[in-house]
Every structure is written in C-alpha cells, then in structure tokens.
Input
Amino acid sequence: MKKIFLLFVVVTFAIPSLGNAQSSDTRVITTALPFLRIAGDPRAAGMGDMGVATSPDAFSQQWNPAKYAFSTRSMKLGLAYTPYLSSLVNDIGLSNVTFSNRLSEKSAFAFSLRYFSLGEVTLRQVENDPGTEVNPNELSLDGTYSLKLDEQFAMAITGRYVRSDLRIVGVDNDATAANSFAVDISGYYQSEEEAYNDFNGRWRAGFNISNIGPTVKYDAGGQDNFLPTNLALGGGFDFILNDGFSKIGVTAEVNKLLVPTPPVRDDDNGEIIEGQDNDVAFISGIFQSFGDAPGGFSEELREFTWALGVEYTYNDAFALRTGYFNESDDKGARKFLALGAGFEFSQINIDLSYLFSTSRVRSPLEGTLRFGLTFNFGDEYTEY
Output
C-alpha cells in the first residue's frame, strides 16, 4: 500500500515529464517538496511563472523578497489559491498567505505560509476494507528581512521551515512528517525613472538563490532527496508613457536547479558510465550542478528554463498580462502560454491568471483559473 501511495504522489508531480519517459536521453532532475516551485500567485503565473525582476507586490516572498524594500505601501496582505489537477479532482491545491511590512525607507520584513494539500485519499488493505481516510500535505513557513544597501539596490535573507507529511499511519513504521529548513539569498535593483525621447523608463534586475538546505527522506530507509535549490536571474524595463497613466513592463527571466544531474549507470552493476555521482552533500551538489551533466555543456544549457513576460497597467488600477515559459524537452518539457489580469478596488487588488500548454505533454495546471487578493494598508511610499 505504501508503494501505491508513493506512486500516486510521484505521478502527481511528474506529469510534465511523462511524455519523455521512454527517451534514453531524458534526465529530468527530480527533488523533494516540488510544490515549492509551483507559482503560488496569479500575477507571476500570468507572466509565465516569473517574479525575480518584476516590480514589487505582496507575493514577492516566493520570487525575490528583496523587492519588499521597494514596496509602494507600508503593509500588504496577500491571499492566493491555485487548484492542481483540476480536470481530475477538486481537492488538490496550493494555498498562499503572505504579509509584508515596510518598516522605513530602507527596510522591510515579511512572512508567508504555503500549504499544498493532496486532498483526501482512501487507503484499503483488502477488497472489503472500509478504508482509512488520510490527508497528505506539504507546507513551508517563511520569514524575510530586506534592506536597501543604497537608493537603488536591496538584498534580503529568508529563513524557511519545510514539512512533508506524506507518510501513512498504520503502514509506515515511522509515520512522522519529514522536516527540513532552507534559506534564500536575494537581491533587487530598481533604477530611477529616466526621461527618453517619447517616454520615461525604469530598469529592473534581480537574482534569488532559493531553498538552500539539507536533504530530506520520505521514509527512514529511503534515499536522501535534494530540496529544489534554484538560481533565478532576471531583468526588465518599464516603459512609462507620456499620458501619465499607462505603463508597459517587459521582463525576461532564466532559472536553473542547483541540484546534481542523475548520471548514466550500467544496468547490470550500477556503475557510473557518464556524469558524476549525485550522492553528495547539498552544498557540494550546488557547485557540482554547474558541470555534472552526462551530455556535457550542451546538456547543462538545456537545464536552464526561460520565460518572457509583459504587463500593461493603467493608472495602477487595471492590468493585463501575458507570458511564455519554456523548458527543454528532455528536462521536463514544460512549455506554456499564460494570460492574466488585475483590478484594484479601493485598497484591494484582485488578480487572475490562466494557462495554455504548448507542449505535447499536458500541464497539470492546464485549464486552471488562479485567483488572488491583496489588501493594502498604511502609508504610501513614492520612490525618488
């Protein structure tokens, strides 16, 4: 029964890569707690799952917490929900709650809780067994401090507690949840508004090394699983049009998992034929991940994902968004077009997004409408 349940969990997260499973050249990198990489808010989702260099918002905690030092309101509360596999079930989803407080012109702090529920699962040992209901879930709890190092650049440090409760009481000898911790290190640059011939403009750039932490085990005798340690780099530009109300933000982003690539092994004795041993400590794995792909430099390049996003806003009260996300066919084959919209009513922002797969492998988020609310409180800040 434990194997059946774990298979269910693996299939839930591996759907994007199943279409390539028969290829001998496919080396999809898998990690523990993969829900940490799901876009938890509709604004980022509506621009192709990006946020490391977009303008600050309530949900910057997942993408680049350093942006909070540039927040335009002193306090923000963000609530978002993302259904998962909505075409098959209605009780699997990711909930996200984030609170940020800009303390002064130079600093801010934030907290967030992300909770991924795999719904209610009925376990039966034999055919006539009435069954036992279990509710497997995973969560992360974050805390961040962001500080401006000068007027245009800020950095942040984030601490994260993660918990994976996928073990089954009565089946596993040790049914306690797997726990770990991680840190993020991030930076964000936002230039002053500059005048050009027909418009004003502002440059943006950011980086985030996220989920740096020890490996976890899903069962006492199992293998160590790396956290989804990730490097995100991005840049963008805001076209501020002369009507004084319209703004077009264009952003590009690349990501790479800082996790060792599985080597090619001999089917008979398990010896490594190509690549490097991935049974290493998490710190060693971060550095190894830049040069251990069995296919060499060309395969390392295929481990980068990229995304392009555009956001049009009018008077900071209405927004239209679109974006495209691309991942190599032999590294997961996630490719999708996203659309989104945002509206502001008084002190409340409402955001929506929708995803269309462009890969032959259907995304688990295909046809999913994501929804988010942001409540703005306190003083307004105007940069420069």
Notes: DSSP finds five helices and 19 strands in the chain.
